Amino acid sequence: MTAFSFRAAAIGLALVCLPALPTSAADGPPSAEQTRIDKAVQDLAAKQKADQEKANDQRVANRMSSLLGDPGTLVLGNPQGDVTIIEFFDYTCPFCKAMEPRVQQLLKDDKKVRLVVKEFPILRPESIVATKAALASVKQGKYAAYHQTMMNFRGQLTEDAIFSMAKDVGLDVERLKKDMTAPEIGDAIIANFNLARALRIFDTPTVIIGNHLVTEASVKIDFPKEVAALRAK
């Protein structure tokens, strides 16, 4: 037997003689100790989430007057509603548009909901154009119709599409373009950016119901349930 063969045989024998390793927890039910550790981890995660939500809601409460009264604050639904929903959105955001039918259905079914919309154009250059046009449409009394038309638009939002929709809802497009350059339009957008930063809002859509900043995915928000729960309080 060569030296190489001898070493190989020795290694093989050693491997055969190694004691069996203990089975992992995945091979059987967890031990009492592992169960206790798992519960501690879950409890810690739940507490951290609760603490974060409490901090979020406190920031919202501290800035509620700005959320409801800053420049560029626009209201849909019932301005005197007993439940307020605030939405930070972008006209080019697919998640905002996916949520929109449920928001509109809520306003249709519940006449006591006030929807405060916060233009938050953060995704594309066309987002800024759309927001400026929407804010400028207020002077012609067409914001609600124009807002919903752009939210219902599917496909890539271009400047041509933005102004084509403006014409479709009865806006004077030349006047609209002029009004878009007014200083108060830029001021309103900057105010919303500052509010979002103060509230640590970085995504669209972001929804606030009452004083609660909703952190779950927009697709999971059950608006009638959330509104009913708030009224129950």
Explain briefly what this protein structure is:
57% of the residues lie in helices and 10% in strands. The protein is an alpha+beta fold and 233 residues long.
Characterize the structure shown.
The structure is a single chain. With 233 residues, the protein is α+β, with helices and mostly antiparallel strands. 57% of the residues lie in helices and 10% in strands. The chain is built from ten helices and five strands; from the N terminus they run H-H-H-E-E-H-E-H-H-H-H-H-E-E-H. The chain has helices spanning 3-17, 32-62, 64-69, 94-109, 125-136, 143-152, 159-168, 173-179, 183-198, 223-232; strands at 74-77, 83-89, 113-119, 206-209, 212-213. Strands 1-3-2-4-5 form a five-stranded mixed sheet, sandwiched between helices. Strand 4 (206-209) and strand 5 form a beta hairpin. Helix 5 (125-136) packs parallel to helix 7. The longest helix has 31 residues, at 32-62. It is elongated, with a radius of gyration of 28 Å. It starts with a helix and ends with a helix. Residues 1-23 have low confidence and may be disordered.
